[in-house]
Design brief:
The structure is a homodimer.
Chain A lengths: L3 E6 L6 H13 L9 E6 L2 H6 L14 H4 L6 H13 L9 E7 L5 E6 L4 H13 L4 E4 L17 E8 L8 H22 L10 E10 L10 E3 L16 E5 L4 E3 L21 E10 L1
Parallel strand pairs in A: 1-2, 1-3, 3-6, 4-5, 5-7
Antiparallel strand pairs in A: 4-6, 7-11, 8-9, 9-10
Helix pairs in contact in A: 1-6, 5-6
């Protein structure tokens, strides 16, 4: 049973759509349709929200591993993570049945649900979301056991992320806000349907399983030699075939996709991965 | 005559398209078509570029007024402005004939040339740009004398800004990069044509004259009550008529444009104006 749900905004302080949804529900109440659930609205990183930045010292959404939670780091987000872990967790023995952590991206990923496992619960959730919100994407990051992920949402008994784009950091777009609200409400509706035993016979759905990160090509001085090709820009989750252009180099040449198979790129040109020089991530199409 | 031209990137450290164009031209040379001009490529705020932020202490593009340039402020950008004023200025007695300062915006403004005066020179420039790049917009900010503007470009004998969007901060989009390069090259081609006396009989063109800033509606706690309406989002320079929606409030109601006349909104939902709560700027249509 899913009784207690935490809805988290502001894990990254400049991702405004989740922050605004949580603020609105804090001030005006959760929609009455979900009154059978015990829902807590929660702001994760007030200081980063105030500063309108992703984080102050370190990425909060990479702190929730035992070695970080037990470290004596004085990074602001390391200290904050311990506090949040007590409030919504603790990881591994949480009283929160489901943590829904809301993010947005500069990539054109639409409304994307990120799940970290493909057990019965998450398969039912994915199928329910695709049935009720067909335009949503399901992204599966199950390359390792859930507890080994460093994400905030892993401190709940279960945890998922809502990721919506394209939206610049520090900007609130109505289209992104509405998609964020619709996907979050769909997840709450799923929880109620799951509790009522109504989610066991849903039709299979398609999802994208995370592959690897593809970096920008760099020169000897550590500078980028290319930008995302205009044919790839904004084409998140669109099939990318071998031979199709992925980078436009500053010398005017193009670099094409050299994979052996089709892939499904996403997080294309995400601003937050700027310093890492990650250009996009790959994915394979799977059936849940 | 326009002999010496400075092309500036990185006045705001997270506006990547101008930074990349300047870097590419520094490394590979200016296109040979412009060899009659003495062109200097210049990075304004290395520290902000390194940190991938707009500025460290204060907005560099608001520092170039006598009271700031003569102040003893220890803000990093106040100190930097004095240095840049010596290199490209000094303001009021500059050896640089034209400063082209390149910016980008999260607003959907396409390729926009911002001019600060409507004398013969700038009218010829605007007409030349519209003739050679019809998709470009001309934005006129001549509400006060040029020297009273705080912008970096005002330290040249003449100065203009290139402003291209939509592009998230810290992201380089190929479409925005290409528009930035095309507009900048068009300005250099204009300088050569102007020097050759070939720009005096160009047809009139339309431009937008800056009006006022419109703020987001706020509640008593200083929080926004609304977001940009989806019909206004991305509609920069599209005529906005009285009665058309501009804000979608979080209570579900809409706020409409109450001006007496049509206006031409721009800088709609610009991330950099987040803390100022500026929703957009108005403009009137003028003929140059």
């Amino acid at each position: 049973m899913i009784n207690s749900v935490a809805i988290v905004g502001g894990t990254h302080g400049n991702e405004t759509s989740g922050i605004q949804l949580v603020r609105n529900w804090m001030q005006n109440g959760i929609p009455s349709a979900f009154s059978s659930l015990n829902i807590r609205c929660f702001f994760a990183n007030h200081a980063a929200m105030q500063a309108n930045v992703r984080f102050l010292d370190e990425d909060l959404n990479r702190q929730f591993l035992p070695e970080r939670l037990n470290s004596d780091s004085d990074a602001k987000e390391a200290i904050l993570a311990k506090k949040i872990n007590q409030e919504l967790g603790p990881k591994g023995e949480s009283n929160t049945d489901l943590v829904i952590d809301i993010h947005n991206t500069t990539s054109h990923m639409g409304a994307t649900l990120i799940i970290l496992a493909t057990d019965d619960f998450h398969i039912q959730m994915a199928r329910y979301v695709k049935q009720h919100m067909p335009e949503a994407n399901i992204l599966v990051e199950d390359e390792k056991p859930v507890p080994e992920h460093p994400y905030l949402c892993t401190i709940g008994r279960r945890g998922v992320m809502v990721e919506v784009g394209a939206q610049p950091q520090g900007v609130l777009r109505e289209d992104v806000y509405q998609l964020t609200q619709t996907l979050t409400e769909t997840l709450l509706a799923f929880c109620q349907a799951y509790n009522d035993g109504k989610t066991q016979n849903l039709p299979e759905c398609e999802a994208f399983r995370l592959g690897v990160n593809i970096d920008f090509p760099m020169n000897e001085d550590g500078e980028r030699k290319a930008m995302i090709h205009h044919q790839l820009q904004d084409a998140d989750f669109v099939p990318l075939l071998p031979g199709q252009p992925i980078f436009r180099c500053f010398d005017g040449t193009d670099i094409t996709w050299q994979g052996e198979d089709v892939t499904y790129p996403h997080f294309i040109n995400e601003a937050a991965y700027h310093k890492l020089h990650v250009a996009f991530a790959t994915a394979s199409l799977v059936t849940l």
